[in-house]
């Protein structure tokens, strides 16, 4: 009876309203750098058949034009859709929507507005590498990446980086270093100490900060002490280098000393040994000898001249006496001849005395020589 009271078209309309599929809920966008993945939730217990999903996008200013929507994910079973390659304008504004479908039934659209420049998070740097040195560590990395392995630098020119580092044992307070390049060297660290580090990126203009990279630890190096044998070898070389000049100086001094002679007065006087040694004065000795010889010779010549004068005077006196008395006896002549001969012998003796004196004066020099 009731079927007769309600027409069939009204019954089918009421049944379709009560059996319509529920719309996806908790729609959100997981956007990091330029990787955009839309996610949603749907309760599969509400349907006794398989349900698929369709997701579309368009620009915000065309949201009311049904023909402007483009389908990216059509009848997919996963509750996610990747729009990374479609949303290529980082500063653009988009409308994303998704609905459930199954057995000719479709749910209403669940919409989401998305602006990458405002909503996308900034990812941490990648490929962080640590290069330890002597009390220093060089940190190098790559900038946050966008889809298709392109850096975000072309879109975010004001990107900077923050480096945190600390001693691992014992744990110390974190120190921060801010810079704008992809490489940074930390100087004046402790040698042979393990440091841990992590890096993050940030943009001041858009107030975006990436999470830090996982911490990485590295031990610094230091100057090692040389082995004992190297120290001994270096010491031996130093001693050798110091000994060679000393030996040369000693040999040179010994050769110089052997060339010089010393008077006995200097050899026995220890104070005179402090003075420099003078070479043998052979020319001075010869000069002294010649001077003595000349002086003694002059004295001998004077005595000889004097003797000759005496002889001449005697001869003159003899000749005068002969003239006075030519008849003198042979005895007188003998006396005169004897006196003459005596005087000559005296003259010869006088002449021989300078030679003896010269020899006596030369003897001290011969001793020195």
From TrEMBL:
Q: Which GO terms describe its cellular component?
A: plasma membrane
Which stretches does the entry tag as region Disordered? 297-369
Biased composition, class Low complexity, residue ranges: 297-306, 316-330
Q: Which SUPFAM superfamilies match?
A: Fibronectin type III
Question: Which intervals hold domain Interferon/interleukin receptor?
Answer: 121-220
Q: Which chain regions cross the lipid bilayer?
A: 228-247
| Residues in the signal sequence | 1-18
Mind listing the UniProt keywords for this protein, alphabetically? Membrane, Signal, Transmembrane, Transmembrane helix
Instruction: Extract the InterPro entries matched here.
Output: FN3_dom, FN3_sf, Ig-like_fold, Interferon/interleukin_rcp_dom, Type-II_Cytokine-TF_Rcpt
- For whether the record's keyword set contains Hydrolase, the answer is no
Q: Residue spans with biased composition (Basic and acidic residues)?
A: 356-369
Stretches of Polar residues bias are at 346-355
The residues covered by the Fibronectin type-III domain are: 14-109
| GO MF, one example | cytokine receptor activity
Q: Does the keyword Electron transport apply?
A: no
This chain belongs to which protein, by name? Uncharacterized protein
The taxonomic lineage of its organism, from the top, reads: Eukaryota, Metazoa, Chordata, Craniata, Vertebrata
């Amino acid at each position: 009876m009731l079927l007769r009271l309600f027409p069939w078209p009204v019954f089918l309309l009421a049944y379709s309203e009560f059996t319509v599929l529920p719309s996806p809920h908790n729609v959100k966008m997981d956007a990091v750098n330029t990787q955009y993945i839309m996610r949603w939730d749907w309760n599969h217990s509400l349907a006794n058949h398989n349900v698929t999903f369709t997701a579309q996008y368009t620009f915000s200013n065309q949201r009311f034009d049904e023909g402007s929507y483009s389908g990216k994910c059509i009848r997919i079973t996963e509750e996610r859709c990747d729009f990374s390659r479609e949303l290529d304008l980082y500063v653009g504004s988009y409308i994303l929507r998704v609905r459930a479908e199954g057995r000719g039934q479709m749910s209403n659209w669940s919409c989401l507005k998305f602006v990458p420049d405002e909503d996308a998070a900034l990812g941490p740097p990648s490929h962080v590498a640590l290069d330890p040195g002597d009390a220093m560590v060089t940190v190098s990395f790559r900038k946050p990446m966008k889809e298709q392995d392109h850096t975000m630098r072309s879109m975010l020119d004001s990107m900077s980086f923050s480096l945190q580092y600390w001693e691992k044992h014992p744990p110390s307070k974190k120190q921060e270093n801010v810079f704008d390049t992809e490489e940074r060297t930390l100087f004046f660290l402790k040698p042979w100490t393990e440091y841990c580090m992590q890096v993050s990126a940030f943009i001041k203009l858009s107030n975006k900060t990436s999470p830090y990279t996982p911490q990485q630890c590295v031990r610094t190096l230091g100057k090692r002490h040389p082995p004992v044998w190297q120290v001994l070898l270096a010491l031996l070389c130093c001693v050798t280098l110091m000994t060679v000049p000393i030996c040369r100086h000693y040999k040179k001094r010994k050769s110089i000393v052997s060339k010089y002679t010393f008077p006995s007065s200097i050899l026995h006087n220890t104070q005179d040994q402090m003075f420099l040694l003078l070479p043998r004065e052979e020319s001075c000795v010869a000069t002294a000898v010649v001077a003595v010889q000349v002086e003694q010779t002059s004295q001998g010549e004077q005595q000889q001249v004097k003797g000759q004068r005496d002889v001449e005077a005697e001869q003159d006196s003899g000749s005068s006496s002969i003239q006075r008395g030519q008849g003198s006896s042979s005895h007188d002549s003998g006396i005169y001849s004897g006196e003459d001969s005596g005087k000559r012998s005296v003259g010869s003796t006088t002449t021989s005395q300078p030679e003896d004196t010269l020899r006596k004066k030369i003897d001290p020099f011969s001793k020195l020589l």
